[in-house]
# Entry
Amino acid sequence: MSAQAAPPYPLTFSVDYPDRDLNRVTTGFRLILAIPLILLLALFAQGHPASAGLLLFLPVLALLVLRHKYPQWWFDFNLQITRLEARIYSYVFLLRDEYPSADQEQAVHVNIVYPDAENDLNRWLPLVKWLLAIPHYIVLAFLYIAVFVVVIIAWFAILFTGRYPEGMFDFVVGVVRWSLRVTAYAFLLVTDRYPPFSLAP
# Structure
């Protein structure tokens, strides 16, 4: 009797592989073109004390601990911010060459399951989730070093061939997926399910 497969993680992330030549000009100048987006990402990134992301995290923390509620409108706002962040990551990491839209999905897909706070979320666990996620931060620090190297190699590959090597593409998408799941657990507080140590969907 085979073990039952685990249900999908409450956050899913994917990027459509560009089955066409990427724009060599915008790829070549991507670092310059992405400066406004990097500044925006720094402003809204969840979990950074100097960022507005902390202002998105603290009210949810307070609502869960004090009222054991996660308002739908706050969830929807955090979901849209997360989707924008994912589009920015995809652009900066050369996965797509469309300039990130503020409101359209484009080819970057992020979905988060809305939690039933009273039944699915422990009201006290949000106080320590950021601490429990420390092993992930350590692994992700090394993975993002690898992503940096892979993106540099992919940059040259796109300039010469117009294509992002598919294995490298899948690796970068996997690392971003892992990172977003940790954010969903530790800072968006939408699930009590501990993130898997995995790049897989």
Observations:
- Residues 43 and 158 are 29 Å apart (CA to CA).
